[in-house]
Amino acid sequence: MRQVAVVGIGKTPFGAFPDRDLRGLAAESARKCLADANVQPSAVQAFYLGNFAGPSFIGQSHLAPYVAASIGVTGIPCTRFEAACASSGAAFFHAWSAVAAGAYDVVLVTGVEKMTSQPSPRVTEILASAGDLGGEIRAGATFPALFAMIARRHMFEFGTTREQLAAVAVKNHANGARNPDAHLRKPITLEQALAGRPVADPLTLFDCSLVSDGAASVLLAPLERASEFASKPAVIRGVAQTSDLLALDSKRSITSFAAVRAAGEKAYRMAGVSPAEIEFAEVHDCFTIAEIVAIEDLGFVRKGEGGPYSAAGCTALDGEKPVNSSGGLKSKGHPVGATGAAQICDVVLQLRGEAGERQLQRHSLGLAQNLGGSGASCVVTILGAP
Amino acid sequence: MSEQQPPGPGVVYTETTIYAAPETFLQDAPYQIAIVELDAGGRTTVRILPAKEGGAAVRIGDRVEFACFRGDIHFYRKSS
Lengths: 386, 80
Fold this sequence. Notes:
The complex is a heterodimer of chains A (386) and B (80).
Chain A: E1 4-11, H1 22-37, E2 46-50, H2 54-57, H3 63-71, E3 78-81, H4 87-101, E4 107-113, H5 120-128, H6 143-158, H7 162-176, H8 190-194, E5 198-200, E6 203-204, E7 214-222, E8 234-243, H9 258-271, E9 280-282, H10 288-297, H11 306-311, H12 328-331, H13 339-352, E10 365-372, E11 377-384
Parallel strand pairs in A: 2-3, 2-4, 9-10
Antiparallel strand pairs in A: 1-7, 1-8, 4-7, 5-6, 8-11, 10-11
Chain B: E1 10-18, E2 31-38, E3 43-48, E4 63-70, E5 73-78
Parallel strand pairs in B: 3-5
Antiparallel strand pairs in B: 1-2, 1-4, 2-3, 4-5
């Protein structure tokens, strides 16, 4: 297997953009990515698109060639990957596999979602289709409800508190306020977070990530060719995609995701590093409880200690293990299919020292964790400076 | 006569009350769902019979039993 590097990144701002369509968002991120690497679209040998629910949100299927043409890429393999919220994480993983195996040298990965053109109850219904329609969704579960039930159980088993959940939201909003591309650049107080409108007990509006439009792109190439590209490369030191049963009620434990633990272990082994050596991370905070569970499953803290660790400020920009310096899904926004690729972009920005007001002091080894559904898919990537 | 077998009793493993409902269940909100650990083994996700229909809210550890089918939704209630 060849070593692979990220040699270009590009993102649109995340937000609610009534005047922008899926294809235009995807094309903007891809153009920025190719410009970052200083290559022409003709250099791209395969195009991997991460998108969760374009057919439901905008009615368009066959999305990969539809998007690729607007980037100026035609004739090459163009394929869409769907793994719920881990769609572009999955696209990234398979792009890495193809480049590592020597099938291609230059692969473009784009993640995109256009969500805000649908009313909230319809968005809730489309998101719920990533759960098990025959069981939990039939009973009336929503995505927030699945994570609310995880939160309830985590509180029951480990004594996690509402305040600890809220602390995650406060921290991610503070970080997002420093990110010019974030959907909500608005710091919030602990009191505000606790007094949010209930969505699914014990989660309030402030525990939930945002419904956003946006796109992110990443260009991959073999490390041995990285010097041909204009940008500072980031080395993919470890990467793994894993899966688990879809329905929450079919999992042995719901306070820990087997797919996340497995992906983390594989990625750490491949990179030859321990969780303690990871300097910073972008984790999948689709809900505040998801960030707490993620930092436990990734081995940053022991099981059950994620709540107190977060409330103590250890995951803040100036903490010992900064988590979601971008603002996370909570504040940066969560255009579902774009999230995995955007996490990679944000880790690479930190590695390059180009993260502006949110730049971390220690930034030579970062991790991205992208979760699909209530833990049925996971992609963990460890990136390092060359 | 329903052809469905009524499912057995169990214990609430976790639960939530949903305020922001999907399109299909907008008229039901707020409503409570729970994952029940069945005495017979395995877990299942059910709806909890609301107070206005003679039910009551449940918490983790409560014993619950089958109340009724409504369409293909299984409703459970707290055991007395």
